[in-house]
Design brief:
The structure is a homodimer of 564-residue chains. Chain A is α+β, with helices and mostly antiparallel strands. Chain A is built from 12 helices and 23 strands.
């Protein structure tokens, strides 16, 4: 599908031909981000089948009472429609003379370079640059260079803030306040419908010709959920028109906006826009690339013995490991699709502990600690889930969102072709090994980093509290669950039989193999439950003997003596 | 823009070339409907810039607390994506050998006929037919004929029910229940978020080759707010593949679904689908055309002396006058954009009385009566608006939706380029002549039809109640309002001066010229207010003298004697 690894040695991932059937691929793998936000790399011009996403970590909202909480799709600022002599620029029409779309993972910059002839016969060269700043967590910027190659053209650009975007049809925002300041700075302030998070989304545009600033009048429109401008410029053959677009996003859930009023946020956002405008696109890109060097490439210079592709592959992983991780805020975690799209709704799973944590533990222990703090801070949700299911202690949600949301796994997905009904998603109910996976993450983090402070403040408590869950979870009957189809009602029915053998059992679970539901005594689940309880007993004894103050505090909170 | 009136004599409105810059034009003017629902004539295949709308009259919903009520965009069933040997059918790519899009206003059938060569070189002929049945208010149907002209092809069609559509970004529905019955009948049951209206939206597909039914296996998907199937068929050169899609829509607000449970509605919807399937597309189209003949063309055969275009133009108007009018239900009225799109949100304005009512009064008095019953039934909203503004009697909303909604004009629209703020929409606050326009409609209806029954039950009361509003509305001071821009705050400020001259005044209104706001003693407004009061006085005297029973009932309800 047009992927080209010939520049892997230069840290460049490249697509060398446009394919309208597979837009999602480079939108996702070339996504930009900084842990605060993720920006899917959809093209500036629109395409059918595109998915345009801007997601801010931790800003969960429930679209309605029947939905689970998800990261809302923030009003879009990447769509810039371009017309050349009135003809819409789209790779679906006209002639493509050359096309490349590249992600430079060293600098975290996206670039598209296209020579295109419109259906009217006007040939233009277009180069699109885009960064999400790692230095300035709220900021991203776009630069477009347009050079007519076959004669003078008139160019129309339509660009602004579009809050008509949804999450696959679900609208998470009110149609918020819209304003135009000083005739050029656009600002939109929508609020999430259920969680009540105020977003301040702002943008402005700067035009240049051959790198000298020019004044382009703006024709401004405010529509439902949308504020945008139309810009018209005449450009001579071989002259280069440059448009730089600066964008920032703030929310009142942001840790650095704590205590700020809406007016203060709006003013900070405008000031930041003006700063970006002063600095300019290339310098913003440079300072962000420098931050990547200092934060990622210099401290974690992983070398793979192999070919260029192998070396590139590990760096590509490192790139995304930084893009996805909320290093700035321990009240959030890593979504299963990171911040590259709506899939998995921004929820975090056991993937954090089992697949991701090792990298951070070994390379950026401070970041790893934040991820582990998240699990500690979300104990209220885990208590709520345990209580709702009749258990004690902390029962972690299979899918986790905001700290006190508790379980957020959707209840139904896709269709059961036999019954014609939506499939019930059992993971949120019975994929219970997540609780010991979380405890395991804590233990593993401690083993690798030796972070005693975390253990004293959070880690022991979490391991005790999860062990308490498992103790309450054990069953003395061995239940076997069977799924059958009732031919009368065409519904799937669960029947169970049980035996008693004097042993403890953990019945009716989903293990790591999610294609097997309603299993009894799943090896992984049971082994990890035992490990969790044993580890708790060991720490109980250690603390009681060696750290009586910590022990007393936790014993009082969790009645540990009851269990021993 | 490719409109062709050469077939006007044959009642045919035709577009003879495809223009991706002006999709909205034929989507709207060729829209189909039956007063129960309106279906915008977007193409089966998707285009950027299209607006795909299915609106059911009277089913208003508020997207959130900050929005006004509007007709929600019902899950779409018209989108059918077609691939020829894997290549997406779109007029934006490949070669168009011929193209026509026609609305036959006599039969109310939409037809597109296209010969197209795909970018891969496969030439096909495609004909699309579509009707919204006037005979069966809940039903519409689509027929696609596909003939390969340059060799055998494999065809993939993707079709179903898509509830990911929004009203310009506003989502009005929960992600409702989805089901597949008997492996072929798709049903989706979303509920409006605020008004709680349950929709039952159902569809099925039938395939034929050279008019013999064939079995095409369905690959079924249920996604968020979406259920659809993918169908794959091989078609030989010069063979014709036919796909017929039957669709129906029911809601628990429908007058004919009154008292039915959701299960009953779902079952009625499935039975109706099966009926359509048995009848087949062409026979459905014929019975609908016959209904048009009986309801519209035979009883109202307007002849214009002039050319074919003039004759066509009056029939075109008659066509839309039938498409837009809820002849089946007096709890709803005619939206300012009828049912052809989201503009004006399905709200009715004074347009009903001033521009539309005359046609119905003279040609279909029963329909006219329903429109006038709507005004009577919406007195509670008019009372609420009067009370909220400190007046007596019935103050009609400038924009009117469901009976007791009251005023539903949006408060802000588009931008004030001077202040950078959204423009305040003053019509809902101060375009008050609507109240006497409604009274005028009643009087006019009575004058033309002589419908004494309506007057006795509704008409007198409405005229008295609106006159009561005007009496309370009169002011003894003559206030003059001036708009100025405060240079400090960059806000528009209203200042007023007043004088007393011993006369009554109606100050601070918008007259029929909506570009002039905050006017005092607007001629139309004042004249109509006087007319309204005088007409009420006349009826007061007439009734008191000649119809004491009616008079007593109304006098008791409205304390008329107080005013005389």
């Amino acid at each position: 599908m047009g992927m080209d690894y010939s520049k892997a040695k230069d840290w460049i991932l490249r697509e060398d031909s446009y394919d309208h059937n597979h837009l999602g691929k480079t939108e996702a793998i070339m996504a930009l981000g900084n842990g605060y936000m993720g920006l899917r790399s959809a093209a500036e011009e629109q395409y059918l089948g595109e998915t345009r996403n801007l997601l801010v970590n931790g800003t969960f909202n429930k679209a309605d009472d029947t939905a689970v909480t998800e990261l809302p799709n923030v009003p879009d600022m990447t769509n810039i429609d371009i017309r050349i002599n009135g003809e819409r620029f789209t790779l679906d029409q006209g002639e493509i003379e050359s096309y490349t779309k590249e992600l430079n993972i060293r600098t975290a910059e996206l670039k598209r370079e296209i020579v295109w002839t419109s259906p009217l016969g006007d040939k233009v060269k277009l180069t699109f640059y885009r960064i999400v700043s790692l230095k300035r967590l709220h900021d991203f910027a776009i630069r477009i260079e347009l050079t007519p190659l076959s004669g003078d053209v008139s160019v129309e650009m339509s660009s602004g803030i579009n809050g008509q975007v949804t999450n696959t049809g679900a609208q998470h925002f009110t149609d918020g306040d819209k304003r135009l300041y000083d005739g050029v700075y656009m600002q939109f302030v929508p609020v999430t419908t259920q969680s009540g998070i105020t977003f301040v989304v702002s943008t402005c545009h700067q035009f240049m010709k051959d790198d000298k600033e020019i004044d382009v009048p703006i024709e401004i429109y405010m529509k439902l959920r949308k504020i945008y401008g139309i810009f018209n410029v005449d450009v001579k053959q071989d002259e280069t028109l440059v448009m730089e677009k600066y964008c920032d996003v703030y929310t009142d859930r942001d840790i650095d906006m704590n205590g700020k009023s809406q007016e203060e946020m709006q003013s900070i956002a405008l000031t930041e826009l003006k700063d970006m405008e002063t600095i300019g696109y290339h310098a913003l890109a440079e300072e962000s690339a420098e931050e990547w060097k200092e934060e990622v490439w210099d401290p974690v210079p992983i070398t793979i013995e192999g070919n260029d592709y192998d070396q590139f592959a590990i760096r590509f992983a490192q790139y995304h490991m930084r893009v996805m991780v909320p290093a700035h805020d321990s009240r959030m975690n890593i979504g299963a699709k990171s911040l590259t799209g709506e899939g998995y709704k921004g929820h975090c799973f056991w993937d954090t502990e089992i697949f991701l944590l090792p990298y951070y533990m070994f390379t950026q222990p401070k970041v790893a600690r934040r991820l582990e703090e998240y699990r500690y801070l979300s104990l209220p949700g885990a208590h709520a889930k345990a209580a709702a299911n009749g258990y004690s202690g902390a029962m972690y949600p299979w899918e986790s969102a905001w700290l006190d949301d508790g379980e957020v796994t959707p209840e139904f997905l896709d269709v059961d072709v036999v019954t014609g009904r939506p499939n019930k998603v059992w993971t949120g109910f019975i994929e219970q090994h997540i609780t010991s996976d979380v405890a395991f993450g804590v233990w593993q983090y401690y083993m690798i980093t030796g972070d005693q402070d975390y253990m004293d403040k959070c880690g022991y408590e979490l391991i005790f509290d999860t062990a308490r869950f498992w103790v309450s979870r054990l069953e003395t009957k061995c239940r076997q669950i069977k799924e059958t189809l009732d031919p009368e009602t065409n519904e799937i029915v669960l029947t169970e039989t049980d035996t008693e053998d004097g042993l403890y059992h953990i019945c009716d679970v989903v293990g790591p193999d999610e294609y097997k539901e309603h299993k009894t005594d799943n090896a992984f689940t049971n082994y990890m439950a035992v490990w969790n309880i044993k580890t708790a007993i060991q720490y109980y004894e250690d603390l009681k003997a060696g750290h009586p103050k910590i022990f007393e505090r936790l014993n009082e909170r969790l009645q540990l003596d009851q269990y021993y």
